[in-house]
Amino acid sequence: MKNIINSLNPDIVLIAGDLIDMNLEPVLEKNMLKELSDIKTKYGVYFALGNHDIYGKKAALLTATLREEGVIVLRDEKVLVNDKLYIAGRDNFSKKPLKDIIGDYSDKPVILIQHTPDTIEETVENKIDLQVSGHTHKGQFFPGNLFTKRIFLIDYGLKKISDSNILVSSGYGTWGPPIRIGSSSEICLIKFYN
Question: Do you know which Pfam families this protein is assigned to (predicted)?
């Protein structure tokens, strides 16, 4: 995965959660998160926790380990990047009001990393320029996609609602059985223009 990302020569990498599946110990034992420090960007790798990152009360240890590897973990907070845009990260379960996370940002665009795409109305209301989410895996295998389409306003793809763009990715990995039927793993490349 890191080789694919590096071949894209990204300015920024956004990871919308679920790096682990509940059990952090094997990941730490095999030093798997070290791979993230090999991702080359101009302005950093940004991460917001997903539901599987939080299960088992391992969020604090995962956060600390990722930060040691140079990943910028955003837990209900925002940062200014290169004095050009804000990136905000929202914890999957806290659902802290977006207004409290983003504060005053009217002078620059805002990208929100939020694992589960379940508060799109709030994103639109707060005029977030881009929300990046995952969680659904685009159903991962049929007929899962039929359920995700009924549960989420946007379960996959890029959609514009009012002034906000919402991107829900199927993600790179899998959950449960390591298979996909009717859904592909993906790394999304987003290009911004003035």
Answer: Metallophos
Please state, in angstroms and rounded to a whole number, the distance separating the CA atoms of residues 159 and 187: 17
Cα 175 from Cα 18, distance rounded (Å): 9
CA triple 96-51-35, angle to 5 deg = 110
The answer to whether residues 157 and 120 touch, using CB atoms and an 8 Å cutoff, is no
Peptide bond into 10 cis (omega under 30): no
Spell out the domains of the chain, with CATH numbers in brackets. Answer: 2-168 (3.60.21.10)
pLDDT digits (tens, 9 = 90+) for 76-108: 999 999 999 999 999 987 879 999 999 877 789
For the entire predicted model, the pTM comes to 0.87
CB atoms within 10 A of CB 6: 14
> Which secondary structure element, helix H or strand E, spans residue 67, and what is its range?
helix 59-68
**Separation between Cα atoms, residue 141 and residue 161, nearest integer Å:** 27
Give dist(CA 10, CA 12) in Å, integer.
5
